[in-house]
Amino acid sequence: MNEKILIVEDDADLRELIEEIFEEDGLTVVSCANGRRALEYLSDAAETVDLIVTDVQMPEIKGDELLQYVRQTRAETPVIVITAFGSVENAVEMVKKGAFQYLVKPFQTKELRAAARAALDATEAARAQARLRRRQPAAPPRIIGASQPMRRLFELIERAAQSPASVLVTGESGTGKELVARALHEASPRTGEFVAVNCAAIPAELVEAELFGHTGQAFTGAKTARAGLFEAADGGTIFLDEIGELPLTVQPKLLRVLQEGTLRRVGADRETTIDARVVAATNRDLEKEVAAGRFREDLYWRINVIHLHVPPLRERAFDIPLLVEHFLIKAARSRPPLEVAPETLALLTAYPWHGNIRELENTIERAVALTGGAILTPDDLPERIRATGGTSALLTKAKAGRLTLAELEREYILEILRETGGNKSRAAEMLGLDRTTLYRRLDEYARDENGAG
User: Fold this and answer.
1) Is residue 27 domain-shared with residue 100, that is, in the same domain?
2) Is 272 helix (H, G, I), strand (E, B) or coil?
């Protein structure tokens, strides 16, 4: 990969020297004579930068201001600080605020090369994730993912949002089915409310009145007329979570709403026209429920016009670093987010996550609350996660501190390939990568080995 370096240095001679060093190594170099020009360059979202090398003391905008901007907008991009001897204290402070490393002028060429390579290797996985995020501007808000299964889901959400047809969202508990339903609503042209209903949380005897409303005196305790949740969602979307729990007595009435676009409040003698798009969700196998007589077949086909499946987290392991980063920021609240040690990320990636995203978020929140350091280590994780991969060769290498994040990714890909007996299609599916990306990575690994030989 042809990595791009941004050099920010007001000394023209030094700037040209650094340019020559990186160009000799086959890297793409972009130079700016001051911090203001660098900010203008970085403000263009289309421009990708793999590493920034910046002076500390510059006119107008100094290195620390540039670092702050990079941390806020391109946190995955490493920054190496170069400074005069008298400004070492400022450079150290910048490292504390997120700079990767600092070099003191005059530095040797091999020092700069070593620092740059270390920075690029350590951030390769994070930069790859960021590139994938930038390629999918249509990704729904609040849904995090860059893997192939999630990109496919985003495309289906975008298409399904334009249709008034009913949607059935399936997936294991904790995968984010309600987020998918909200994304469908927000991407649609519908102007009404999004109303979420947990069918399992409503007592069976009250489900009909809650969904369709009731008149005054319709039943004991009904003192005044009340609109139901379907009417609240008129012109919008009603999300029926855990629809498999809906009582059989209510199912034909829901079917009528879907077929006719009308409902009748409990106790009423007239029907009301309604325009609420139905998005239903379940973690049950509804076809088995139909076969067992617990769910109406005609209702099943009526809600399952469009089917969206949310993959479990273990089938999109490529997204785990993204999710970990998101939950670290969320859990940090007012303080700077913690970093994650490579061996910790290896454990989090290897764990099967039967509770899916909900379990991962809980794990990160717990770790942030209990850790005493600035870096999450395996000791900050629950025993069930540490025990899962404690003996793997991959984790042993990571724990020994011999793997960069880029090397960790390489070893993980090769380990999955071994598990699949060399089946690249199956390996790509398990990794959440498209086959083209997997083949490209394997070609890069082969070139590296041949070059090393």
Assistant:
1) yes
2) strand
Query: Does the model's pTM come out above 0.85?
Result: no
The verdict on 198 and 294 lying in the same domain is: yes
156 is a domain residue: no
- Looking at the structure of the chain, the number of domains it has is 3
Per-residue pLDDT, 352? 87
Sign, CA dihedral 239-274-205-305, equals: negative
Identify whether 127 is part of a domain: no
Q: Name the one residue in this structure whose structure tokens are 């289906």.
A: 156
CA distance 249 to 62: 70
Candidates 389, 387, 379; CA nearest to 317 is 389
Tens of pLDDT, residues 337-372 = 788 888 888 888 888 899 999 999 999 999 999 888
Asked which of 311, 334, 350 is the last residue of a domain, the reply is 311
The per-residue pLDDT for range 180-214, each reduced to its tens digit, is 999 999 999 999 999 999 999 999 888 988 999 88
User: Average pLDDT of the chain?
Assistant: 84
Look at residue 390 and tell me whether its pLDDT is greater than 50. no
For residue 111, count other CB atoms closer than 10 A to its CB.
13
Q: Are residues 391 and 349 in the same domain?
A: yes
- Give the integer Cα–Cα distance in Å for 248 and 132: 45
Q: Could you tell me the residue range of the domain that residue 342 belongs to?
A: 314-452
- Helices 63-73 and 35-42 cross at an angle (nearest 10°) of 10
